[in-house]
Amino acid sequence: MIVRHLNDIIGSQSDVKGEGWNSRRLLLKQDGMGYTVADTIISEGAELHLWYKNHLEAVYCIEGSGQIKDLATDEVHEIEVGTIYALDQHDRHILMANKGEHMRMVCVFNPPLTGRETHDEDGSYNLSE
Q1: What's the domain count of the chain?
Q2: What local confidence, expressed as pLDDT, does residue 53 receive?
Q3: Is the entire prediction scored with pTM above 0.85?
């Protein structure tokens, strides 16, 4: 059984930051579950250009609000508490947090992350061995 608390992750090697985001990785590849779970903060007003070409991701919003833009269709979807979206086609997208508030998201990645990944120039994570 694996039991962790977010407070134990904050400030550790599993607390990874980038421009406009902070991902606190709760489950990683080394845990053997086959997926990663992260508690992620998107900074207020952030506009992140992302493309998880090597991973599938599901995201559930638990705080704040914003939008996600599908770059294949230009369709924009509102995100608020209780919204889930799944990038089931390795979708290129822009994630935007509204000004005046951050978004807090629970993110699930498959395949799992090793823990120290940050976004490449194209907004993706490398696939770890």
Answers
A1: 1
A2: 85
A3: yes
